[in-house]
Design brief:
It is a multi-pass membrane protein. This protein is an all-alpha fold. Helix content is 76%, strand content 0%. The chain has one domain (44-96, 125-202, 210-377).
Length: 386
């Protein structure tokens, strides 16, 4: 009888252990599921935040840039400079990062070095400097070309042409970042290209009386060229961050913005003084139709809003891809032309309306392909890294 009782006790203990094991298994599965859902939610919150910065920053900066020229601004180099000169507002972040770095080092000093993960080989200082030099040169070219375009074109026409950024970005991403072309992507690129080409047919009666046909053509060519340089710049940013810098953090975003802005700002300052436009700035401020204070505030807010846009743009590149960040930028396409009708009394003729519809259609086509990729993807990342 005693042996029977002992056997029963052992069986009951084993049953309890099995039940505890099952319960722990269920708890682990539940925790993993909750953790997965939390990561997805945090991811989408970041995407939403960066998208808001892109859309709001781009619309505000473009409209303020046109306001500068509309009310008496004449300097193309100053219009270029303010697109970059706002980077000092990001410098306090380095104080925060330095403090955080000290705290992490103190924490890691108590850890066993054998448990620390292996660090990947860092690129040389010369390589990193070369990256920022290339990005800075491209950024300076983009800002100058866009400044010329915004000076000579109605802001609605200018904004619609910017949709061609997506086509150029996809083209360069195909070679640099192995982006695949699908029927929907090709359809999107064709529509965006036709959208820009249609604006060449805009009747001369719709062109501002302040701008000659020759200057309008220069503005059109410079905006298209700026869009091509912009698409190349975004693709190179993604390539450099993934293949050269090999880092994925918010610090990388700030570093890229600040260092490329330093290089580009120096280049544009050289252009500003070499062209002698700096000598006319005081006169320009005195003749600004809204007054001296408004002149300074307009340029200051252009600089700030472009930095807001840059943070959002590079955040989307880091989280998803350069092409996706450009798609979000194109999503804000209808905002500027519609607001320009009310703020600057620009006319929305049939060609502009058709061009805008085709640009939005091109965006929808790309967005649908992105939805298909998302649906078929088995990765944790809800958006396919194109």
């Amino acid at each position: 009888m005693e042996k029977v009782e002992e056997i029963q006790v052992q069986l009951s203990i084993r049953a309890e252990e099995a039940n505890e094991g099952d319960s722990h298994g269920h708890v682990n599965e539940s925790n993993q599921s909750t953790s997965h859902q939390t990561r997805k939610q945090v991811f989408w919150i970041r995407i939403g935040f960066y998208s808001f910065l892109v859309l709001s920053g781009q619309a505000a900066a473009t409209l303020l840039g046109r306001l500068y020229y509309e009310k008496g601004g004449k300097s193309k180099w100053m219009g270029s400079l303010v697109q970059l000169a706002g980077f000092p507002i990001l410098l306090p972040y380095y104080l925060f990062r330095k403090k955080k770095y000290k705290i992490e080092n103190n924490h890691n000093s108590y850890m066993n070095t054998n448990t620390l993960p292996l660090q990947s080989k860092k690129p040389s200082m010369l390589t990193v400097a070369s990256v920022y030099l290339v990005l800075g040169l491209i950024a300076a070219a983009i800002c100058y070309l866009y400044s010329v375009g915004l000076m000579y074109l109605p802001v609605s026409t200018y904004s619609i042409i910017l949709a061609s950024q997506l086509a150029f970005n996809a083209f360069f991403s195909f070679f640099l970042n192995s982006h695949k072309f699908t029927p929907y992507i090709i359809n999107s690129l064709v529509l965006l290209t036709i959208s820009s080409v249609l604006l060449v047919l805009e009747p001369s009666s719709q062109i501002s009386s302040k701008v000659s046909k020759g200057k309008y053509a220069i503005g059109f060519v410079c905006t298209v060229a700026g869009s091509a340089a912009y698409g190349l710049g975004l693709s190179l940013m993604q390539y450099f961050m993934n293949k050269v810098l090999k880092k994925e953090s918010f610090s990388v975003i700030i570093d890229v913005i600040v260092y490329q802005s330093v290089v580009a700002t120096v280049i544009i300052l050289v252009g500003l003084f070499a062209s002698s436009e700096w000598s006319t700035l005081r006169e320009e401020m005195n003749e600004f139709q809204l007054g001296k204070v408004s002149y300074v505030m307009t340029l200051s807010w252009i600089a700030i809003t472009w930095q807001v846009f840059s943070i959002g743009l590079l955040g989307l590149i880091l989280e998803v891809s350069s092409l996706f960040s450009n798609v979000i930028s194109v999503l804000g396409l209808p905002i500027v032309p519609i607001m320009a009708v009310f703020l600057f009394h620009e006319k929305m003729n049939g060609i502009k309306a058709m061009s805008m519809v085709m640009a939005v259609w091109g965006f929808v086509s790309y967005a649908y392909q992105n939805y298909l990729d998302n649906k078929s993807s088995k990765n944790d990342n809800p958006i396919t890294n194109g």
